[in-house]
Specification:
Helices cover 83% and strands 0% of the residues. By secondary structure, it is mainly alpha-helical.
């Protein structure tokens, strides 16, 4: 077989894999370097502190994530995960409802208080695990889900508040690289220390890092903040329509942009959770005991984190500007779709391992940056009221729905792995459709904003 024939054959099996070299070849790295270095003088301190904030928070999450996976697989077991997902949806809904009562507070008070609660929570969990039980591990999984989504949502909400669309396009990739670096350090810390310190003592390490994160946020708040540009023509909603969570949900389903954004967020959670169920089966077959599972998973997370950091630091801005938000919002779904079909035909565990970590790498890099970029066409009031409902309530509600689907496919219908594969492929297809529609709506709103900026302002 010639080299060209081999390439054609491989491309028919995994088109996205071979698209990556072609994609990179189209990038003008000289132009990208100019974008990468174009951090303006007044932005450097803010960008550095935001980078550090995300770096430390994601580091905390990746210290705890392998620990959580080891505790629950060795405790409750993978067959109980659908019920954990349901618990996550219920608890997150309660937390978002409580949060909605305090959105009127100044952002320093709002965000600072929540991060302070995180610090206290970690100390409480460390104490609780001195009397470890299977139920405790399940409750900790739920808490860490709420912790991670709330902490990241507050971070990007803050970043969206201090940068406009132009600044976000230039800088969000570089800022997001802090998350990739944090993933490398956090997973490396757990891989190196978990067997010596024990899984539960890693909670104390995480508590220290959360304390540092809070200090960075308070330092950011001491810097004079001015919006880089007026949000002309952006999506604005009457503040009275956002006074209750029910009204916010109604608003989401009545506005085309918010609807497709919410659908992308939902399918971004459902589809990877279906893949994660298969990933847990593979992990449990390769290691036993909470510390061993955590160590194996942490090592895999570390290598993926290195990939994420490189992509976020040097490629995200170029990918979004060169290939657009449509590609950035749908490429992870395409990877899962192709991989699940491949796993159905060639059931090797390495396909699941590769698909899981490739999806994580893409979603945490250019997908995340593109999704956050779409929020720059919203007004500030909408940003602080609607974004948490979409990113927390709908996101975790989708995890509960994923749990129900897994339970139905496995326990009620008895379809097993084949059913999970078919369901995952279907939801990946829905994700791709909604991502393309969201990209179209975002471009329309951004164009409206550009036109409004060009219109002459009335003379007072």
């Amino acid at each position: 077989m010639s080299q060209e024939q081999a390439k054609t054959c491989l491309k028919s099996v995994c088109p996205f894999t071979l698209a990556v070299p072609d994609m990179l070849a189209k990038i003008n790295f000289k132009d990208y370097l100019n974008v990468f270095l174009n951090v303006q003088k007044g932005e450097r301190l803010k960008v550095s502190l935001l980078f550090s904030w995300l770096f430390l928070f994601i580091c905390v999450y990746y210290v705890l994530r392998p620990v959580r996976r080891g505790l629950i697989l060795a405790g409750l077991g993978n067959d109980k995960m659908p019920f954990v997902y349901l618990g996550t949806a219920l608890v997150t809904g309660l937390v978002v409802w409580i949060y909605s009562k305090f959105t009127h507070l100044p952002r320093k008070t709002l965000i600072g208080t929540i991060y302070g609660i995180f610090f206290v929570n970690l100390l409480a969990w460390w104490q609780a695990f001195q009397f470890e039980s299977a139920i405790t591990s399940g409750l900790f999984w739920i808490w860490l889900d709420v912790f991670s989504i709330m902490g990241v949502t507050l971070f990007w909400m803050y970043a969206n508040d201090i940068f406009d669309s132009g600044g976000a396009r230039r800088l969000f990739g570089v800022i997001a690289a802090g998350g990739g670096l944090g993933a490398v350090l956090g997973s490396s810390i757990t891989a190196a220390l978990v067997k010596q310190m024990g899984a539960t003592n890693m909670l104390l390490v995480a508590a220290v890092l959360v304390g540092l994160t809070l200090l960075i946020f308070l330092l950011l708040e001491r810097i004079p903040q001015e919006r880089a540009a007026r949000r002309a023509g952006t999506l604005e909603i009457d503040e009275r329509s956002m006074s209750a969570m029910g009204k916010i949900v109604s608003l989401v389903f009545s506005n085309k942009f918010l609807f497709f954004l919410t659908m992308v967020v939902c399918f971004e959670r459902i589809t990877p959770d279906l893949l994660q169920y298969l990933y847990h089966e593979v992990l449990h077959s390769l290691a036993s005991g909470s510390a061993d599972i955590a160590a194996l998973d942490a090592n895999l997370e570390r290598w993926r984190g290195l990939f994420e950091f490189g992509v976020e630091m040097f490629l995200v801005s170029a990918i979004i500007q060169r290939f657009g938000t449509g590609f950035a919002l749908t490429s992870s779904a395409a990877v899962i779709l192709v991989s699940l079909v491949g796993f159905g035909i060639f059931p090797t565990p390495f396909l699941v391992l590769g698909a899981f970590h490739m999806d994580e790498g893409i979603r945490h890099s250019w997908f995340k940056a593109a999704k956050e970029l779409t929020y720059t066409v919203t007004g500030r009031d909408l940003l602080y009221s609607v974004k948490p409902v979409i990113e927390m309530f709908f996101y975790r509600f989708s995890r509960g729905l994923a749990g129900l689907l897994i339970y139905a496919v496995n326990s009620l219908l008895g379809l097993g792995t084949a059913g999970i594969i078919a369901l995952g492929a279907a939801t990946a297809g829905c994700w791709i459709y909604c991502g393309l529609r969201l990209s179209t709506e975002y471009k329309r709103l951004e164009l409206d904003a550009s036109i409004e900026k060009l219109e002459p302002q009335p003379v007072a």
